[in-house]
Amino acid sequence: MSRGRRTAGFLGVLLGAAGALHMVRPEHFDTIVPTALPGPARGYTYASGVAELAVAALLAVPRTRRLGGLAAAA
Fold first, then answer.
1. How many CB atoms lie within 10 A of CB 9?
2. How far from chain centre, in Å, is Cα 9?
3. % of the chain with per-residue pLDDT over 90
4. How far apart are CA 21 and CA 4, in angstroms?
5. Cα–Cα distance measured from residue 36 to residue 64, given in angstroms and rounded to the nearest whole number
């Protein structure tokens, strides 16, 4: 297995787990949402969890791995 593939796999698992935790235990993430943002913190928590899950999915598929890497860096 190549180093890049291992790195993408590790990052994908890490982001996937973090995204899942945003959905399962959102109250922990709500506390770190800046109060200056408009609206309830929970919406930002769920949105960031969905984004992490999407990036993890991009990293899991070889054809979209480069895009996933760029999204993770962004």
1. 14
2. 13
3. 91
4. 26
5. 35
